[in-house]
Predict the structure.
Amino acid sequence: MADEYIHFVTTGGTIDKDYLTHKGTRNFTIDDPAVERILETIAPEPNFDYAVESIMKKDSLDADDDDRERIREACREAPGENVVVTHGSDTMIETARQLDCDKTVVLTGAARPQRMTDSDAAFNVGMAVGAVQSLDTGVYVAMSGSVYEHDEVEKREDGQFVSR
Amino acid sequence: MADEYIHFVTTGGTIDKDYLTHKGTRNFTIDDPAVERILETIAPEPNFDYAVESIMKKDSLDADDDDRERIREACREAPGENVVVTHGSDTMIETARQLDCDKTVVLTGAARPQRMTDSDAAFNVGMAVGAVQSLDTGVYVAMSGSVYEHDEVEKREDGQFVSR
Amino acid sequence: MADEYIHFVTTGGTIDKDYLTHKGTRNFTIDDPAVERILETIAPEPNFDYAVESIMKKDSLDADDDDRERIREACREAPGENVVVTHGSDTMIETARQLDCDKTVVLTGAARPQRMTDSDAAFNVGMAVGAVQSLDTGVYVAMSGSVYEHDEVEKREDGQFVSR
Amino acid sequence: MADEYIHFVTTGGTIDKDYLTHKGTRNFTIDDPAVERILETIAPEPNFDYAVESIMKKDSLDADDDDRERIREACREAPGENVVVTHGSDTMIETARQLDCDKTVVLTGAARPQRMTDSDAAFNVGMAVGAVQSLDTGVYVAMSGSVYEHDEVEKREDGQFVSR
């Protein structure tokens, strides 16, 4: 169950947002993959091999069919059987339902950027890593503290992921 | 798979250490359960019910047979089928092997106190939560980025948990 | 020099920004005064008395003459002789030049919200507190690691405060 | 008043403590100077030149006369007129009283290691930097939120620095 390779695909979303300090920028910007910084906290070091593939840096509200096709391809072409996708929460479920590949794929993200104190990002990525090693082939969503099959989850108005 | 009750049992260990500021204290002290602070980062809020039961505040090197009996009892008496135990890493595997109960029990902890920047605590607890919802009845250890069955893991000299 | 009362006036700006997690919010919001959270880190506790007065929650690019008049009044009416004002950096110098009161007033803020890891907020507020206790009557700006008289500072395109 | 050179001398103490993760280490260790990490948060970058000179890594309870002589020499030989010394809090005042040099020297430290969340380290170093630029020649102590002349401060049993 342990010591397996995990392929991380990053697409942007809140988890990767940072606050830039230049004049006139009053906003958060999607920056480098948070998952790299989170995996570096594993001490003394991770006992699985992994690679982080950043395929886009988008707010998930702006993701279109071409973007979803790129995510689908990245999952299919990923080495090994275990894939974790970090994704914006607004359309995470939609992307999960359009993925089809014969691997164990877990999508996760964050309600609060990893760069902020009290972020849920490290917990969520941990949850996805724990699930991707334990689950059978299929596409899952790990958010709000639970792991769901992709067709058994919905996002409520207040942002919480719950069972449908 | 989701929305289930999880019972958290805390026993102390590095994950719960804090640095007290009184004169002459040159050391870390085991304080309140870190898992409570970690679960509070789940936003907007966790979609599982839970309780945190603190049964001792010990360095795991100091845990004796009586302590292990208390942990065993806490697991047996825990409501529901899903139990996460936070524990010091030095004797976590020993405790895991002495637990026997007909539930899904995942032990985890941290190499670096949750109160410190760059701690692995939130990732590890996330991993345990993701695993406890996904695994069959049994006792598991979630450390160093992987989830192990209790009889298939060992801790190396440098602190890393690996497959035996 | 020590143990004196300090009056903190907060007006918003980057230092007080937080990231809200509701659906569709892709942006920061100015939240409760960061200076309160920073002062709580002083251990075991601050040896000066203080109060925090939040008079507005604005991006400083949106501050108008009425807002500056409110800040001027808050400084005049502040108890004691030491006032620290937290303010957005974009128009901090403009506000400083329009303040006139017979107290020691130090304006500060942050390039990165206090809610983020690696924020400059705690350092900057510390700098302002160290300066307000040490300086004569006048209006000063404490940013980018230095304390300036209000008419001897300018902000460069890249956001750095430097001597004029 | 601004844009001047500041020389930082580090000696160890709580501010520089870290928690190492090797087996059997149940304790802190004094690590690399925290002041370097704090100064890196100044954004976009500090407007003063500086150097950080680490002359020892000691708990201040263990500092002896030879150590104090080394600190005295480091202050005398420091380039420029502004020196900030980071030091353990237990004997900070004793060291301050034995320093004599014709510069502005501010000693500071922390009640909580800089590596921990909610540390007072960044605030304290900011306070020292704000003070060293604003004060006349002399030796000062910046702790607990106030800046003191070295012969007008004492440390209470509970760790708070107050006026004598």
Notes: The radius of gyration of chain B is 15 Å. The domain at 5-163 of chain B is CATH 3.40.50.1170 (Rossmann fold). Chain B has one domain: 5-163.
